[in-house]
């Protein structure tokens, strides 16, 4: 039996008022594989431990199959957890480790048949009489998974189970986990900081930062339509190109987005998403371009919706099946502060008087919500001179993916065609404004 898991405005606060999870709401369907993704320390393991009952829920509600479960003991939740460090008993064989929770649940029953069936499923029959010290890292992780599977739980909770393994073994076990969870049909919540794991494993991905849910959607949607610049920058390899731009929308001319020494000219007639950019006239925005949204080609070969830029080759990374070209286009990169840190940079907080009213507290909370969890352009001070390379050139600001048959060398100036159908535009707070966050209603509907 699998189960639905619901988190409604769940928060977790530790000693000294440190809030590590903030008003998190999630609905996990029975049999769904949900991945909690975010940088280390963002609260994702704490969420998993609250679901398992290893941490108390400070605020909000945890529902299991629609029933209130905040106060249920871990044993009553019928969930199995797979840890990052395997957590095997060193004095027990593989058979003993897999069968231990079965003996605890039913001391009089023989766990042998279920242990053997689990070992066959994982392909570890020949390891049943070995101690953990005699096993490799991958074999130990299979044993840890077997201990969870043998219990026939209502949900699997996996806390970065592959992070201690080498890359080749991670890829192999990733495929095994996908196959096993689909075969068993058990609800799975998987925690990781590795976006490639999240994208390949999950039915849906929930991106966290600082204990705040940034976006939850299918892997394809999170990649193609990131809600904010943090999600866009955290997901995707190589990382999305983020450039500072200024929208120019004259009434008697074409709309452009200035990128330092060059500009993206938006084709006419403007599509709906580009028309909505008019309200940003004169404002600084963040332009996002995935590496596949730009190609190296002559202007004559431009397709509809592609516009021309030029770039100076700074560095070429050979990847075997492709190359990554680092280019200088004269643009100013936009920075997501502390992208790999678990929490946004701290903002100065005005101390509230102890006699503050309820209305004062509501106003304060509303202000914090409006500020949002993502700050992008940290231009509080007057920008200084641009940092240049030793030869006087600006460092690369654009990475383009291309095929290895193109001969590129350092210092070459090459034409670039930008596909505006894959253009992202974010405001100064990091929220996506193009493509539009939601479909506008049709006046004829």
What do these coordinates show?
It contains 10 helices and 21 strands. The protein has 445 residues and is α+β, with helices and mostly antiparallel strands. The protein folds into 2 domains: 225 residues, P-loop containing nucleotide triphosphate hydrolases (Rossmann fold), CATH 3.40.50; 187 residues, no CATH class. It is elongated and about 85 Å long. The C terminus is likely disordered. This is Sugar ABC transporter ATP-binding protein. It comes from Streptomyces parvulus. Pfam families: ABC_tran, TOBE_2.
List low-confidence stretches: 346-355, 364-394, 440-445
Taking the alpha carbons of the first and last residues, their distance comes to: 43 Å
Please tell me the total number of domains: 2
- Name given to the CATH architecture of the largest domain: 3-Layer(aba) Sandwich
Please state the oligomeric state of the protein chains shown: single chain
CATH topology of the largest domain: Rossmann fold
Strand content: 25-35%
Largest sheet: 6 strands, mixed
Q: Which strand order do you get reading across the main beta sheet?
A: 6-7-8-3-9-10
**Gyration radius over CA:** 26 Å
Shape: elongated
Give the overall average pLDDT. Answer: 84
The CATH superfamily of the largest domain bears the name P-loop containing nucleotide triphosphate hydrolases
The CATH C-level class name of the largest domain: Alpha Beta
Query: SS-based structural class?
Result: alpha+beta
Number of strands: 21
**Percent of residues in helices:** 10-25%
